[in-house]
From TrEMBL, chain A:
<keyword id="KW-0812">Transmembrane</keyword>
<feature type="transmembrane region" description="Helical">
    <location>
        <begin position="59"/>
        <end position="90"/>
    </location>
</feature>
<keyword id="KW-0472">Membrane</keyword>
<dbReference type="InterPro" id="IPR035906">
    <property type="entry name" value="MetI-like_sf"/>
</dbReference>
<protein>
    <submittedName>
        <fullName>ABC transporter permease</fullName>
    </submittedName>
</protein>
<keyword id="KW-0614">Plasmid</keyword>
<feature type="transmembrane region" description="Helical">
    <location>
        <begin position="12"/>
        <end position="39"/>
    </location>
</feature>
<keyword id="KW-1003">Cell membrane</keyword>
<dbReference type="InterPro" id="IPR000515">
    <property type="entry name" value="MetI-like"/>
</dbReference>
<dbReference type="Pfam" id="PF00528">
    <property type="entry name" value="BPD_transp_1"/>
</dbReference>
<dbReference type="GO" id="GO:0005886">
    <property type="term" value="C:plasma membrane"/>
</dbReference>
<feature type="transmembrane region" description="Helical">
    <location>
        <begin position="197"/>
        <end position="227"/>
    </location>
</feature>
<feature type="transmembrane region" description="Helical">
    <location>
        <begin position="102"/>
        <end position="123"/>
    </location>
</feature>
<keyword id="KW-0813">Transport</keyword>
<feature type="transmembrane region" description="Helical">
    <location>
        <begin position="153"/>
        <end position="176"/>
    </location>
</feature>
<feature type="domain" description="ABC transmembrane type-1">
    <location>
        <begin position="68"/>
        <end position="274"/>
    </location>
</feature>
<keyword id="KW-1133">Transmembrane helix</keyword>
Length: 284, 353
């Protein structure tokens, strides 16, 4: 394979189209959004051009702070839980025969293709009183009578982890597939039980991958918008919900734009961190 | 008493039998090489000894204790993997001290032992270096040091030198042998390199198709191969098929040989090493000689190699340059097979292939 930097216009041509699309559909709207975020809201109307930072000052209010820290905390919890479940799962997955691995990956990809709406309604049905899983528990004699488990924080968390899990597995898969399987065996011949070998060799050996994946899933979960409304109570609504609420229902475009800019910057910063963590492992 | 006894050790993967009833007694302090072409089951056999594969049948006994089903981490054997399997997140010293850390040794103790072992493998002063900053040869030594950290009863190595270049490999062979002699540790090395096996081992175990063909000291494997596979695999040899017609007489393509060790009757296979074949000018007479035509000749410096067509079969002979007969390719030659150099093997049909 030729590994050299492309030269001249002709060789750069293949990236021109995506670059153009990125400018038209991301850079321009994002710049507009930044501009709007410093505009002044006209009560009863829309907004007019200005250069005020009042919208950003509102970040300091207790209400905004509450939503912000809940969103970040929820995303962090989802990230930690997803990686915590997906890492051992993927570790077992890469040891399966090739055919079985492919079947699992196709299955996970099909979960990933489900829309948030379907996942949300499926979970709310599953956790409902009338048709939910508690009816099964009652039939098994584990519960006295069926009850509703949704909306609740637990339901929201379960739905988000369910949604993030296949994504997490796919991000972890390449690193775990490349891991030398003899590392674990070496640890075992040196006196570690298989479980101990996993925690003393496999996990620390992939520390940066785990950190990078956690950040990726964190960003993924930070943007959740539908599930909090479908599976959570109003106090479980995330920043994305708040932005939509401000933009659509309160007609406060400048404040919504300011929050959106903030969310994008947090996400970008974290993706940058994830790339940095990933790169360090490559060179190690 | 034998340190390690393999009793009919077998490994099957579904319909495939990777190791076929391997039985072997390995005395204390021996340096053993499991030698064979790739896919012969030597690595599977080593992995069963290490406890990384569960045998499908047979027993494994060390010092009278049956360890057939003991998990790898309870066996306390040191193993060096082909990929070395050094832990990338640890320094050289931490890698070596890993088994001590697992057993709860103090930091100071770990450090002391790591430095002792680095001294042992002649790599002092690299304890604090990450393994990614070490050269291939240095990693090799760290892997060896780590496997020896707990003074194991058994030292197992899976193709340990295959990743090194030829010169370094040669040096490491000598060093490994010296280390083993100094420590007196029972050692089993898997290799496909017969030179490596011949120069290092006290006992060479030749395997193919999941079976042990011969387990003997290197010179015996070379001089007295158990069958045609061993004769052919170890070094170069000439295999002659023959038929015993009278006591001590065998008819081979191109003539008759008189040999003392022949079975009373039936088909035989004879193995003669090229360096034992004596080349004479055509027309000279003597016992056990066949006539052939020189098809190819080349100088190897210390010796001359002849390829001689004897009744349609190619015979390879090596002789000293000063003994070279005055003949050019196409010319006739007389080839002598001294009786003492002819090893009688079971006939081809019994050769398990």
């Amino acid at each position: 394979m030729i590994r050299r930097a492309p030269r001249g216009l002709a060789e750069h041509a293949p990236i021109l189209f995506p670059a153009l699309m990125l400018v038209v559909f991301f850079v321009i709207p994002f710049s507009l959004m930044i501009a709007v975020s410093v505009f002044r809201r006209v009560p009863g109307g829309f907004y007019e051009p200005d250069l005020v930072f009042a919208n950003y000052e509102r970040f300091l209010t207790a209400f905004f702070g509450g939503v912000m820290s809940f969103s970040l905390g929820l995303a962090a919890l989802v990230a930690v839980l997803s990686v915590g479940i997906a890492f051992p799962f993927t570790y077992r997955l890469v040891k399966l025969p090739r055919g079985a691995q492919i079947r699992w990956l196709v299955f996970l990809l099909s979960i990933l293709s489900l829309s948030e709406v379907i996942i949300g309604f499926a979970w709310s049905t599953l956790l409902s009183r009338t048709a939910g899983i508690t009816n099964l528990f009652v039939a098994l004699g584990l519960m006295a009578e069926p009850q509703s488990l949704s909306p609740s924080f637990g339901a929201l968390l379960a739905g988000l982890v369910y949604q993030a899990f296949p994504y997490t597995v796919l991000v972890l898969y390449p690193a775990l597939a490349r891991l030398d399987p003899y590392l674990e065996e070496a640890a075992r011949t040196l006196g570690s039980s298989p479980l101990r070998a996993f925690f003393t060799v496999v996990v620390p050996g992939l520390r940066n991958t785990i950190v990078a994946t956690t950040i990726m899933v964190f960003v993924f979960a930070l943007g959740s918008y539908l599930l909090p409304q479908l599976l959570g109570r109003p106090q479980h609504w995330t920043l994305s919900v708040l932005i939509t609420d401000q933009a659509i229902y309160q007609s406060n475009m400048p404040f919504a734009a300011a929050m959106a800019v903030f969310l994008v910057l947090v996400s970008l910063a974290l993706v940058g961190l994830a790339l940095l963590a990933g790169r360090r492992e490559e060179t190690a | 008493m034998s340190a390690l006894v393999l009793d009919g050790l077998t490994k099957r993967y579904g319909p495939v039998t990777a190791v076929h009833g391997a039985s072997l007694r390995i005395p204390h302090g021996q340096f053993v090489c499991l030698l064979g072409p790739s896919g012969c089951g030597k690595t599977t056999l080593l992995r069963m000894i290490a406890g990384l594969e569960d045998p499908s049948g047979g027993r494994l006994v060390i010092d009278g204790r049956d360890i057939t089903t003991a998990p790898a981490h309870t066996r306390e054997f040191g193993m060096v993997f082909q990929s070395l399997a050094l832990f990338p997140h640890l320094t050289a010293g931490e890698n070596i001290a890993y088994p001590l850390r697992i057993r709860g040794a103090s930091k100071a103790e770990q450090r002391k032992r790591a430095e002792e072992l680095l001294e042992l493998v002649r790599l002092p002063g690299v304890a604090d270096r990450p393994v990614s900053k070490l050269s291939g040869g240095q990693r090799q030594r760290v892997a060896i040091a780590r496997a020896l950290a707990l003074s194991p009863k058994l030292f197992l190595l899976d193709e340990p030198l295959s990743a090194l270049d030829a010169k370094l490999r040669e040096a490491m062979q000598i060093e490994l042998k010296q280390l083993q002699q100094r420590l007196g540790i029972t050692t089993i090395v898997v290799t496909h390199d017969q030179r490596e096996a011949m120069t290092m081992a006290d006992l060479v175990v030749v395997m193919s198709q999941g079976r042990i063909h011969q387990a003997a000291p290197p010179m015996e494997v070379y001089r007295q191969p158990a069958d045609a596979f061993v004769a052919d695999f170890i070094g170069m040899t000439n295999l002659l098929e023959g038929e015993v017609t009278a006591p001590g007489t065998a008819i081979v393509p191109g003539g008759t040989l008189h040999l003392p060790d022949l079975p009373p009757t039936g088909r035989v296979l004879l193995s003669v090493r090229p360096e034992d074949v004596v080349v004479h000018p055509a027309g000279t007479d003597g016992p056990n000689r066949l006539t052939g035509t020189l098809s190819f000749m080349r100088d190897l410096g210390a010796s001359v190699e002849f390829r001689i067509d004897v009744a349609g079969r190619e015979i390879v002979a090596l002789s000293r340059p000063q003994d070279r007969p005055p003949v050019a390719p196409g010319g006739a030659l007389s080839v002598e097979f001294p009786p003492a150099a002819c090893v009688v093997l079971p006939p081809m049909a019994e050769r398990p292939q």
